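Recap from last week: sequence in, structure out.
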Amino acid sequence: MEIQALSPEIIQDTAVPPTPSDFISADQIDLVFGTSYTDLISSSLSSTVLAFSDEWFAPASNLTNPKPPIRRPGVFVPTGAWYDGWETRRHNPEEYDWVIIKLGVASGKPQGVEIDTAFFDGNHAEAVSVQGCFEVGEDADQKVVRQEYEGWTEVLGTRNCGPSRRHAWRLGHKASDREVTHVRLCMFPDGGIARFRLYGTVIPVFPENNEQEVELSATTMGG
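Predicted structure tokens:
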């Protein structure tokens, strides 16, 4: 009996569940997203890493740095080689590692996701998924980090990642029509990611008090 060899493309198509998103090649990412949308989780907009499962080798806060990742060969920290990104311990007993990020804007409608594994080769994330939720109010941040929180909905289904490269996906209508205030990046099963970008449009959130002034010209409110 003849056994057909499976190409990497066939393996990826069968391994990744279908989701309403389109892959964007690395040379097209800036053209597609760079001038039309805002990176909703950029640290330059004061986004906040609220919680994470692990950051043993490199901190999750690096994910939202607006600058491109860099490499510093020969530089070491107490846990090993220095990496410009988020890196967790290996042999994760759970299905995935995760990080929860509060958007740097009032809320937003995601239109695309970028995952950059620059300089992570062999220790890179094998796959990722992204979830989002909409929570406002004084206890919103405390609510979304609870293990029992059930408000997460899919933004990007599970997608395979390769070593040291930029990956991006355009989101389908179901995900891109939904407003979010927080996102959760899941990394299967562990490893490293240099940068996480969430491209989208900013949506203002108005206070319940109608007499309270709102600065709509601010970037965080869509100005």
